[in-house]
Amino acid sequence: MYAKQLEYNELSRLVERFKIIIFGRAVGEFQDEEEYYRIRNTLVVQKAVKQTLPSFIESCKSLSDYWAFISSKSSTYAGRRQFLREAFEPINWAINELKSRGIVGEDPTFQPERTNPLSNEFITEQLSKAEAKLVSEDFSGSITNSRALVEQVLLALQHRLPNCGITNDGDIGKMYKAVQKALHLDPGEKELETQLRQILSGLTSIVNGLGAVRNAAGDAHARTYNPAKHHARLALNASKTLTAFLFETYEYQLERGLIPVPKTITEEDPS
């Protein structure tokens, strides 16, 4: 059965309402079980945002499921809020993209335009946005954009690589580790040259550093320090190097049959 695809305004409203429920329950506030169930089941069939929903939404089919999950993530309200802010970043980005592109709702033959993160066009566009913020001296915003680009590319790779698993919990270090293994880039692989293993170990540090500097200096959290221009430039160039390498590695292995051609992602029953 065809699932109704929502217009941008309604989709944006539902996402914001869902975030209120999610963040509220995380700090012990009472939330309506039926409303959670209704919005959750609507969002998981929206083609425009399904792939950017936090991964725990799929498994948390009720508020009790969600409470058990979020309680295990952190024992403090502050820790849970930070986790959720990071987990919702991809869908926040997707909603902003829809605002500029528009989305049609009623025609069952309509396929919303998808921006492919595994393309030179996408990577270049996102780097340009980070560069524009750097030039305008929004150094925190530039750092956030740089980190978000890495997360989008890693998430796209997770969807395409076999046996990679889909983790969208805001931990880009964990996401990179899964992608690294699926692309045979683990520094521990004996088949790799020693010099290459050293570089790959450095890329792991870059990923972890991008996550850490965004938390401290980006505009998505309360800042612990104000970044300077050269800090933002470092984050931008690091994300450029990393995403270009991952994209080109994926294309190289795909062309040579070292990894299988990805299957089309199909809609799943949200129940």
For the biggest sheet, the summary is: none
How many strand elements? 0
Shape: globular
Structural class: mainly alpha
Q: CA-to-CA gap between the ends?
A: 14 Å
Structure annotation, total helices: 11
- Rg from Cα: 19 Å
What is the helix/strand order? HHHHHHHHHHH
Overall residue-averaged pLDDT value: 80
Q: What portion of residues belong to β-strands?
A: under 5%
**Percent helix:** 55-70%
Number of domains: 2
* Poorly predicted sequence stretches spanning 5 or more consecutive residues: 103-114, 217-222, 264-271
Account of the 3D structure:
The chain has 271 residues and is mainly alpha-helical. The chain folds into 2 domains: 8-87, no CATH class; 120-255. The protein has 11 helices and no strands. Mean pLDDT is 80; it is low at 103-114, 217-222 and 264-271.
How would you summarize the topology of this molecule?
Blueprint: H1 8-26, H2 33-43, H3 56-59, H4 63-73, H5 77-87, H6 89-101, H7 120-135, H8 139-160, H9 172-182, H10 194-217, H11 229-255
Helix pairs in contact: 1-2, 1-6, 7-8, 7-11, 8-9, 8-10, 8-11, 9-10, 10-11
Characteristic terms for this protein:
271 residues; mainly alpha; 2 domains; 11 helices; disordered C terminus
Question: Could you give a short description of this structure?
Answer:
This protein is mainly α. It has helices at 8-26, 33-43, 56-59, 63-73, 77-87, 89-101, 120-135, 139-160, 172-182, 194-217, 229-255.
